[in-house]
Amino acid sequence: MLSHGMKQTGNISIDHLSSVLFAILNPWVAVGILLLLAFFASYMNALSWADLTYVLPATSLGYVLLALVAKFALHEHVSPLRWMGIALISGGVGFVAGGPALTSHDHHLAHESDSPAFRSSAVVEAASGEAKS
Amino acid sequence: MKHVYTWGAILAVALASVVGDILLARAMKQVGDVHALWRRSGLGSVIVRVLTNPTFFLGVTAMAAAFFSLLFALSWGDVSLVGPAAASLTFIGNAFAAKIFLHEKVDRRRWIAALLVAAGVALVAG
Fold it and tell me: Is ipTM beyond 0.90?
């Protein structure tokens, strides 16, 4: 969500860069950087409780949102090939969302966190992972 | 010759992003569940814990390297080739690296997801 906002701002700022004077550039860039920081913070937050191979497909939903924004807000033409790409990404995200969020149970990583919530969820996920395999 | 430079730079981008992602993911696993930590000891301590984690800084450094390799790649190749190629390779590379270095269980479901998303990104960004 935030990454698409960032990208949208990025696009707009590039647009202004070529057409408008340099001074107007700054607020857009500031907003872009703030959104980028917000994206990074949420990304780090997600990585703190979920697998990398779970978080990455989920963040790629940003591409889908970007295409939808381009279509409905900016009235750009979205080619059939791109719609196919959107379908593929959505399918991939659906696939990964159906599985467990955390599968790594490397103890030297897990015991760094002494929060009970973290532990119990790790144990549950590990157990469900075991049951599957 | 230009092709070699472009693809070399694309590989460098993908490699640096994969290294960065792996290091950042490891750093955040070391920090622990941010939400639980925040509730227990406040936002300040979360920030301190993240910023004092050496792995986090290595990860950010790798991400910066990826960014500059991307600029380098864009100076050689078209954005319509460099963007999707680097993004797709990063996805596939991350699935391998997460399995090897983070001991994540990348099962068939996740492999399919990684391949679908990589193909989708290539189509959307291309």
Answer: no
Neighboring chain B residues of A86 at a CB cutoff of 8 Å? 120, 124
Give percent above pLDDT 70 in chain B.
98
Query: CA of A31 to nearest chain B CA: how many angstroms apart?
Result: 20
Chain A: give the shortest CA distance to residue B97, in Å: 10
Q: Tell me the three state secondary structure of residue B84.
A: helix
Q: How many CA atoms lie within 13 A of B71 on its CB side?
A: 5
Q: Is the pTM of this model over 0.95?
A: no
Cα dihedral angle (A33, A34, A36, A41), rounded to 10 degrees?
140
Which residue range is the domain that position A119 belongs to? 101-133
Q: Give the domain ranges of chain B.
A: 2-125
Average pLDDT over residues A3-26: 50
Which residue from A51, A103, A113 is facing B32, i.e. has the nearest CB?
A113
A71 shares its domain with A109: no
Q: Is some CB atom of chain A closer than 8 A to the CB atom of B112?
A: yes
Q: Which of A45, A91, A106 sits opposite B103 (nearest CB)?
A: A106
Buried b (16+ CB within 10 A) or exposed e, B70-89: bebbbebbeeebbbbbbbbb
Query: Measured between CB atoms, which of A45, A95, A105 is closest to B113?
Result: A95
A106, A121: one domain: yes
